[in-house]
Amino acid sequence: MNEPSRQSPLSGLLRTLLALVVLLAFLGAVGYTFWPQLLPIYLGLVGKTQSIGAETIESKYFEVRNNSRASQPQLKMAIRTLEADYEAIVQFTGQRPENPITVLFTDGEGMAFAEGDQLTVYYNNGIIELGSAPFFLVFLTSGRLFLTEGNLFLYAGYAIYVTEEVGRAEEFIRQSSDNWVTLFRQKDALLPLTEAVQTVEPTDEDTAYDFIRAILEWASFLRWVAQTYDADALIELLDGQSIENVTGFSLDEAQSAWLEALTAQNIQPKPCRMVASYASLIGLICEKLDEAGK
Questions:
Q1: Cross-strand bridge partners of residue 192
Q2: 60: which DSSP letter?
Q3: Rounded (10°) CA dihedral 98, 103, 37, 277
Q4: Number of neighbours of residue 112 by Cβ within 10 angstroms
Q5: Residue 51 is inside which H or E element, if any?
Q6: pLDDT in tens, 167-220
């Protein structure tokens, strides 16, 4: 299989902005000097403008608005897919929103992402992009919309874990978080948990690289916690309990036990060139691994 072609500097910048929008659309506030293009999104102006004059489509769980050029059969199929995602997620988490979630279908290029309490889905060149939608539905079904008072790292990792457990993560992260952690270990690129839990919201490609690695590692770690303890232990971690209180282990001890469990599984991760487009979210990880010669 041929290695994906590298992007131009401009394409690389756009790719980075897109990846960060997917991760940061629910933050509510971003440095204006670094991302002036994104300010309208965080102020809620883009989605509101796009919703004006949109047709309404019936759905069991969503208030669907459409102003895209997608055909009715495409829209119906996409809505059925989102409804199935919704059902799988709420059955797994036990968290169901009181009101329908607003979903906007609109023309444009990019991955689905959450703007406040709205999921925006793009239609482009005959394709409705839904790969990231389950990730954001974890947020939208739980009521954790803007994590300005919480820890984005904790809940983003949890959202990946949930999408994996309900079988909806393949298109978004390309292979399991356990596989990614194993690959990071093979490439000597694993972030120790002591560093991962201190990861802050991205401000550039380097911090985005750290953040994406950290939340993939956290998703894998949460799976170990759930398998070793129970689902209540996950909620305790999300609610701010320390790893020591939840597991009885220090952070270093918990990391050793988690990685030992992964080693025992004899996981064979796929290399980057087989799973990632370099113009994608996961592609940022692969590009950084390449730059480091790993």
A1: none
A2: S
A3: 110
A4: 26
A5: helix 45-51
A6: 999 888 889 999 999 999 999 999 999 999 888 777 777 888 888 899 999 999
- Residues paired with 101 in a beta bridge: 62
CB atoms within 10 A of CB 137: 29
Tokens at 213, concatenated: 């690695």
Pairwise CA distance, residues 67 & 243, whole Å: 46
Alpha-carbon dihedral of residues 283, 284, 286, 291, nearest 10 degrees? 140
Round to whole Å and give the CA distance between 144 and 162: 14
Cβ atoms of 278 and 287 closer than 8 Å? yes
Gyration radius (Cα) of the chain, Å: 19
DSSP labels, 156-171: HHHHHHHHHHTT--HH
d(CA 167, CA 201): 27
For Cα atoms 25, 26, 28, give the angle at the middle one, nearest 5 degrees: 95
Does the pLDDT at position 15 exceed 50? no
Structure tokens at 67: 């102003």
How far apart are alpha carbons 94 and 240 in whole angstroms? Answer: 19
What is the longest distance spanned by two Cα atoms in the chain? 56
Query: What confidence tens digit (pLDDT) does each residue in 66-102 have?
Result: 999 999 999 999 999 999 999 999 999 999 998 999 9
Instruction: State the Cα–Cα distance between residues 272 and 287, nearest whole angstrom.
Output: 9
| CA–CA dist 191, 199 (Å, integer) | 10
The total number of residues shown for the chain amounts to 294
Tokens of 260: 């030992």
Contacts of 142 (CB under 8 A, 6+ apart): 93, 95, 97
Task: Determine which helix (DSSP H) or strand (DSSP E) holds 106, and give its type and residue range.
Answer: strand 101-107
